[in-house]
Known about the structure:
single chain
Amino acid sequence: MSVVQESPSAVRLRAAELRRLIEHHNYLYYVLDAPEVPDAEYDRLLRELQDLEARFPDLVVSDSPTQRVGASPLETFAEVVHEVPMLSLANAFSEEEVRDFDRRVRERLGVERVEYTAETKIDGLAVSFRYEEGRLVRAATRGDGTRGEDVTANVRTLRAVPLRLRGSDLPGLLEVRGEVFMTLAGFRALNERQRSHGEKTFANPRNAAAGSLRQLDPAVTAERPLTFFCYGVARCEGCGLPDRHSELLQTLAGWGLRVSPEVRVVAGVEGCLAYYAELGRRRDALDYEIDGVVYKVDRLDQQLALGFVSRAPRWAVAHKFPAREELTRVLGVEFQVGRTGALTPVARLEPVQVGGATVSNATLHNMAEVERKDVRVGDTVIVRRAGDVIPEVVGVLPDRRPADAAQVSLPRVCPACGADVVRVEGEAVARCSGGLYCPAQRKEAVRHFASRRAMDIEGLGEKLVDQLVDRGLVRTVADLYALSPAQIADLERMGEKSAENLVHAIERSRRTTLARFLFALGIREVGEATARTLARHFASLDAVTAADEEALQGAPDIGPIVARHIVSFFAQPHNREVVAALRAAGVEWEEGEPRVVPTPLAGQTFVLTGTLSTLGREEAKSRLLALGAKVAGSVSARTRYVVAGADPGSKLERARELGVEVLDEGAFLGLLQRAEGAGQAQEA
Length: 684
Ligand code: I6G
């Protein structure tokens, strides 16, 4: 709705309504993770308010959602004295230490059993937020616990932090404590962005959060994906506090403050330990890093009775998880050769326990990273292992560098084949120039060729490929089609039956599609989606191989870099020979004329919501794009289909409201396949 009658009172009312609506949607999106409207609607409301405020500057109030990035860059942060000090927590590193904590608590209270609130301990930065009459007036970092830095202007840019509390029965003064942090998805996206802008990346989400919050220019903080959970109250004037910490957290949530959904009330030390075990199992599935869990005596009168010792409460303890980062020494650096010849430096390490597993190798990514971090053999380094990500060296402790630490140099020749190693000026990655003559590249190329989404040769696993290449039975992927059952049965851990099965699987793979074949060739930058686009656009292998860079760029989504890789792949006589040998071995697919007729889905708009079990969102999107369809982020009257996977978001409801056709995963796959089939039929 826009203001039709621009009387001062109508404008004022509309501005107030817009502020309320925007804050409400902020709350749903950032605090409850349950948005009700598409982003476009939110943006529209914000723009309407911005327009109104631009035309009527008197309407601007400091807690308007338009004023989140209101402040100019600072020279330095002002100091804030914490009237109620920001304490630290005692740590427990073992079950025994938790049992000791519980025993001390029970003995002091003279009770048999205590109820605890259990919460996650997020790896972020502790921040204190001060609300006066429901308005955020100050935010400060912990600092040394007594003096911190005034980061109000920056904290105001966090959409998860309400500028005004919700509700009517608000305290005159509220000082809330919490943790500001970055989600893993946000952290990865930020590092990706930093990397692509040639700027420094962050070693972990905690550093990224700290670096982002301590920016002198709030506009920079506003760009960073920071969020927060609050975990306690330092002061509350004009409010009757509840009896329990768990209820206090609910009260905070009721005022619109973000509280961790992982908070539980547990009975006794056994309840604490069960919570620890459960969170330990789920640690890798959370979208933020936690370094442990915190147990707090739930009853506030008991907390009061227990009091504090030195600078930590006696009523709380942090039960730490095994660290994700550890120190160890670099024993050497070796180079691994990948499918495209990329040489990856891998640090051989003195074995160390990280996050509950022994780590003795860690990736250094590429030579540019080795140089940037200045990693040398003999250095003490920080290794990090998070979730199922490959362990990596995140940094060096220069103070601990021994006098004889040796610089890492890129080998001049490939460690696997002896061909020259080439590093193009300005590129991070160095490559072996041996192409498919290099056994390391050959093994990777054969593995890729045989993989499920390429030629789908069932049973051709990693160890088998190693043996086939090492014994000289497979020099190019075309040799796979000449293998006899006897040759395969002769390999380690193979019998006659499994050899026969493998030969059948190889046989079956002869009949394929052009898209799979193109993907299987392992051309740089040609993933599944690009291969499908090429197949659809050019319809025959000869047309692809004959296309120059310009013609290739005529296909949807093919840019100059991909086009160059394709041209240079087919320009190499060796690659052309392999392709010819594969065709001679009977590898075949249906070909057609380049497609001129649009596909049945061309021009139709899809919106995807929820999780699809059989294909990732990116794949779904690229298949749709390859069919000429459009993929939008929000549902509107122009949407033709909404595809709803598991746990769909509010887009599904919006689709129902607008009467847009909703497809479940099965129906969507059917539609895709039919459209792709129709495309192929037209091509044939
Ligand atoms: O640093 C902290 C992280 C999490 C905390 C904390 C917390 O509760 C979940 N609680 C207190 C009381 C303190 N620091 C001092």
